C-alpha cells in the first residue's frame, strides 16, 4: 500500500510546481542554451575560416589564394608570357617552337646564329625540338597580350599599357627628357619637359653676338660636311667609265688546320672582265665566336685573275635586295696586281651585334658588291 501511495504522490507531484521540479527544468534549459551558443560560435568560426575542402572536389573548383606580390595577375602573366631564353617580356615579335615555347626576336635570331657558327641544328632551349625560320612561327596572341600588360614609364614612373608607352614617352610625358629649341645654335641644356618653357624664357643663346654664333655654327657645318663627303664620293664614283656590280653570296667554311677556324667565302664571280672572290670572318677569326655576345664581320676582296698592269679600284658592299640589315656604305681603295691581289680585312659597316646576328642566322649571307675601276 505504501508503494502505491508513493506512486500516486509522484504522479501528482509531476504536474505541480515544486522546488525540486523547477531546479531540474532550469538546468536542462541552461544546458540547451550553452549547447546552442557553442554551435553558433562554431558556425561563425567556420564562416571565417571557410569550409574545409572536400578531398573529392575537382581541382578546378578550388580557389588558389594569392601569395603576396607574386599573387598579382600581372606578375603571373609575366612568368607565363616571358621569353624562355632571356626571361624578359618581348618588346617586338614573339616566335614559338612547335611545342609552343616562346622566344623574343633577339634571342630567336641569336640561337639561329649560334647554330650556324657551331654547324649544328638550332634547338629550343626548353624542349630541344628543332627550330628554324620555317619551323617556327609568330604568336600574335602573345604579342597582343604583352602589348596590353602595364609597364612603368622611365620618366614619370606611372603605369601604362605597353602599346601606348612609346607614344606617352615621346609626346605626352611631362617628365620626358627634352632639349632646348636653341640647341641648333649651341645650347647644351637638357631636362624634363615641364621645365622647358622656364628655361627657354631665360636661355642666353638668343642674345649671343654674331661672332659667338658663327663659331658654334662652324662646328655644326663641319660635322655635316663629313656626312655629305661620303655621298658626294659615291656620286663621283658613279661617273666612272667602268662600273661593275654583282650579288655575292657568302657561305660558311672551316679551315683544315689542326685548330679549325670558321670563315665565309663566295664562289668565284666575274666583274669588269676579272675574276674575284670575297672572304669574310667573324670577330677577326676568333677561336670560338659563339662564346661572345659582341659579334662583328670583316671582309677582304681577292683578285683571282692575272693582270698585265696595276688595277686601281674602289669598292663597297651594300645589303642585298631583299635583306633588312642596315649597312652604312664605306668606300675602300686598293691597287691590285699579281703580287698584291688581296686587300686587308676591313670591317663590314653594320650598326651592332643584332644586325650581325641577322646575317649569321641566315643560311647564306647575301650582299651587293660594287667595283669602280679608276682610269689613268
TrEMBL record:
Designated name of the protein:
Zinc finger TRAF-type-containing protein 1
Q: Does the keyword Magnesium apply?
A: no
Zinc finger map (TRAF-type): 149-187
Keywords in UniProt for this one? Cytoplasm, Metal-binding, Zinc, Zinc-finger
CDD domains, A to Z: CYHR1_C, RING-HC_CYHR1
User: Residue ranges under compositional bias (Low complexity)?
Assistant: 10-22
Give the organism the record lists: Pundamilia nyererei
Family statement drawn from the similarity comment of this UniProt entry: Belongs to the ZFTRAF1 family.
Domain RING-type, first and last residues per copy: 83-128
Assembly state and interactors?
A: Interacts with LGALS3.
Q: Which residues form the TRAF-type domain?
A: 149-187
Residue segments, region Disordered: 1-22, 46-67
Gene3D superfamilies linked? Zinc/RING finger domain, C3HC4 (zinc finger)
Q: Could you tell me which PROSITE patterns the record lists for this protein?
A: ZF_RING_2, ZF_TRAF
InterPro entries, per this entry? Answer: Sina-like_RING, ZFTRAF1, Znf_RING, Znf_RING/FYVE/PHD, Znf_TRAF
